[in-house]
Write a structure and sequence with these properties.
There is one protein chain. By secondary structure, the chain is α/β, with parallel strands linked by helices. The chain contains eight helices and six strands.
Length: about 220
């Protein structure tokens, strides 16, 4: 057993354990092109941590036409179908550097492991990566009413793991995700740039720098 003050670590999926952002980008780009609205990598950055309908609204905001709720749902489904086709090609090779080792380290320390992902495809991605069994509980979009930065997803994970929020370490790469961790009353480990993830308690560039002993 390692000496750590935490009883559980709750990971985000996209941008932390694997990078599905590129697949989302390709799927959103195809949709934007079909609607004749501009979309590039810079715009895609603004969609980090935002759910599907919220992302769609941002993309369609630059369109000259108005969309009905039914049309928006159809477009969101179309995007998701394309995304699902893309993630079918994923494998363990798509784990980000250090991800498998970080999960193993947390497990070896005797801590619970949760996943908090707003992705409706979280289970499919975990299966493709071959790490479904690494998690004690997975909270995906289907199990929550409010997305990040609302703390609901992290509070739900802690509750299902049977651990108090104060005893949890949350790992996130998005500003909205870090805000959700802090609002839940947890220690926030950011993955990315310190100047971007300003609310995080500590920021590392990736899970290849994960060191459970440091987060006290």
């Amino acid at each position: 057993m390692s000496h750590t003050r935490f009883k559980a670590v709750i990971f985000d999926l996209d941008g932390v354990i694997t990078d599905t952002a590129h697949y989302h980008f390709l799927a959103w780009k195809r949709l934007a092109d079909s609607q004749g609205v501009p979309f590039d990598a810079a715009f895609n950055e603004h969609l980090k941590g935002i759910d599907r309908m919220g992302s769609l609204d941002l993309i369609l905001a630059s369109s000259a036409r108005q969309y009905t709720a039914a049309e928006k749902l159809a477009l969101a489904d179309e995007k998701n179908l394309h995304y699902q086709q893309l993630i079918e090609t994923m494998s363990a090779d798509n784990l980000l550097p250090g991800a498998a080792q970080a999960l193993a380290t947390v497990r070896a320390a005797g801590l619970k492991i949760g996943l908090a992902s707003v992705s409706k495809n979280a289970f499919t991605v975990l299966e493709r990566l071959g790490i479904t069994g690494a998690f004690d509980y997975v909270v995906d979009a289907a199990r929550i009413a409010r997305g990040k930065p609302d703390p609901e997803i992290f509070l739900k994970a802690a509750s299902e793991l049977g651990v108090a929020p104060a005893d949890c370490l949350g790992v996130e790469d998005a500003v909205a995700g870090v805000a959700a961790i802090k609002a839940a009353g947890m220690y926030a480990l950011g993955i990315g740039l310190p100047e971007v993830l300003t609310q995080a308690d500590l920021v590392i560039p990736g899970l290849d720098q994960f060191d459970l002993q440091r987060y006290q």
